[in-house]
Structures are given as structure tokens and as C-alpha cells.
Batch of 2 targets.
Target 1
Amino acid sequence: MLVKEEPLADGWERVARPPALFRRFEFASYEQTRAFLDRLAALSEETGLYPDLGFAARHANVTIYGQGGTTPGAAECSFADRAAGLAASAEG
Amino acid sequence: MLVKEEPLADGWERVARPPALFRRFEFASYEQTRAFLDRLAALSEETGLYPDLGFAARHANVTIYGQGGTTPGAAECSFADRAAGLAASAEG
């Protein structure tokens, strides 16, 4: 069966077992990292999607799982796209 | 050579390669997780110690490395102890 995959925002990759979208964001400062995480938290509250997050002072790794172990779909890809925009604005 | 190790707050464990302190905190809600992370960020800004953090909606994994690859010392153990207090207050 051919599965049509949602288009993926720049910089994100698909990972398997379990299926997820992954991206590492790097920042010039801790303040930028915090600004990104705060905005990402607001996006999670709006969308109900809570990715796994790993971060330290100047980077954040974001892993967005598909719901119930399924392949990430339109909702997850939209979240990934918007997260990339939040990272860009946190740098600004 | 016998190395005297700082006493460690309850719930924390020492890991090796690289030497670090680790603890997983679990919370009943996303709001509690966020409250903990916000307080931990303030503690990082006060102390200048930035642990590695991994979190999702209802847990946070905290890894505190020793400075320059050394065994975590008094500053890191104090941070661990205060972090445990912040987790308890985030649950309150």
C-alpha cells in the first residue's frame, strides 16, 4: 500500500520505530533557547500536541510522535512547520 | 586515591562517562511540569548551572554534568538538592 506522506518543513526529518518527526534547533544564547521553549509551550497548549523535548543552554531537540504510534500526519507536520517559525522568531 | 563524594539528595543517582547526576521527575499534569521547568530555569540563571533537560507533558529528566568533564561537586549537588525542592513545590 502506498502511503501518501505530508510534506515536511525544512530541517525536519522523519524517524522510525516509533514513527516521529525530529529536528535539532541551535541557538546563539540561553535567552533565545528559553524564548523558543516558551513559545513552543504556548503552541502545545493551543494544539494539544506535546512533543518530547530535550534541551540545554543553547539547543533544543524536538521529537513529535504520531498519535497512538501511527505515522505523524497533517497535525504533526503543521506543528513542525510552526515550530520552525517560532525558532526563527526567537532568534530575531 | 580515595575521592570524597558530596552527599546526594534523595532520588538522585550518579552516572558515569561522562560523570553526572541524574534524576527523573514525574508530574500529575503538564501545568506542574511547566511550573517545575520555569523554576528550574530561574535556578539556572541564579547559579550559572545549566543541566541537560529532557521533558514531555508529564515528566522531566534532569542530567547535571560536572564542570569540564569532572565529577559533579558541591555546586552540582546543591543544585540537585534545590531542584528536588522546586519539584515538590511545583506539585503543591
Target 2
Amino acid sequence: MRDRSKVLKARGFRWQGVEVRQYKADDAPYKDVRRQTLLGEGEGEADLNFITRYFEIQPGGYSTLERHQHPHALVVIRGRGRVVLGERSYDLAAFDCVYVAPGAVHQFEASGAEVLGFLCIVDRVRDRPELVAEQP
Amino acid sequence: MRDRSKVLKARGFRWQGVEVRQYKADDAPYKDVRRQTLLGEGEGEADLNFITRYFEIQPGGYSTLERHQHPHALVVIRGRGRVVLGERSYDLAAFDCVYVAPGAVHQFEASGAEVLGFLCIVDRVRDRPELVAEQP
């Protein structure tokens, strides 16, 4: 059997052969978020049971406030920002890790002057996010 | 149910509450490799089906030449080095990604003057590595 191993070279937070996509295709509220799927959906990668994505949020941007049953494992690899995690929120800087437990409401924000870029790993088979209404 | 979400703050490639361990406990050949398990084995993290580890290899060091049936997803987050992947080898720099397919022989080396540090994500339930003899 052909060895399907590979290296994806990085250049400025873009990766060889990886498309930069909008964060979500539906009309959930978010601002200035892009995603790249690094490993798990490419050719020959079906043996991975988890998907490694890179999300980048521009200064002032934020992801959707949402929850779901699948957990997230995140590692920040660029810039700074903030995460809402249940009823708390935390500052984030490079290499901080975040565990989003099943059902936890969460939102990521590039709250300062810097881009926030993070890896987010999830199960290949997972439930869809449920939108959470902002508190008035 | 208590929300088990958490943030692990990073400081110089060490993480709050995460132990720095030797790479392997058995006598497989390797040199100057340390590991930290960032997410997946801590308290309240049993819902993660995959484990996010950080490996760091000092200049001149290398991991064991081995293979196994579980795939690896890697993202380099520090320094430079090289990976042997089947019959080929590749230079690695920060943010390069590596997919190690099932059964592929692989070895990571901090081949230059820099430390090589990378995230390596694997299934929680996985087979044990099989040592591969170096070619004479």
C-alpha cells in the first residue's frame, strides 16, 4: 500500500495546498473569522478520527457564541485574544490551551489589537453547533 | 453538571499544571526528547477521544524510529528539525504540519542548532509503537 504520509509546509499562517475558507456558511453571527483545515479532510487522511483546523480572527472579530456536545481541544499559535467559556472568560496568548467541555457555551474574540490564531481539534464525527442568544 | 472547560496558560513552552516527562519509559533508542500531555489525560477531560501532546527535542536529539497503526497529526510550534517519513525525509520549521499515515516508519530529529517542538495528536485508544531497526 502506498504511504499516504505527508508534510504541509507553512508560510505566514497559510499552508501548502490548504484553502482559506470562511468560518461558517450559514448566517450565524460572527465577525472576521477564517478557517483552514490542516489535517483530516485531505486526500489519504481518512484514517484520522479527528480533524485539525486553524482559525484566525482579525482584531475586533469574534466567533459565534455557541455550544455542542463534542469537546474542543485548542492551542493558540498566534497573537492574543479572549475566550468566553461558560460563565467565565479568560485572556489568551500564544500557546495557551483551551478545553471546551461538552455542552459548554463558548466564544473566541480577538479582543485587542492583535490577530488571534488557534488550532482547534475535533472529532471527525460530531454534532452540529447550537447557536446561543446573546444576553440583552 | 459542572462545566469542565478550562484554560491552561503557557509560559515558555511549559503549561500550568502539566508535568514534563521523559519521552519513553522503556529502553527504545532516542535522545533528548521530553513530552508534555496538554489535553486529554487531565481531570475532567475523558470526553476527548484524542490526546494532544507536546514533544520537544533538544539540538542533536531524535525520537525513536518506529511505526504503528494509529496515525499522527503534527504541527510544529517551535524551532526547526527534520522528519523521516517512510523512505523520504523533510525539513521542518514552525507551523509545518505532518501527517504520519498508519504503518509509516517515522522519526523526528532536531538536526540543526535549534530545538524542535511540536504538537502531536493521537487517538486516545491506540496500538503500541513497533521499534524499527536502523539500517546498518
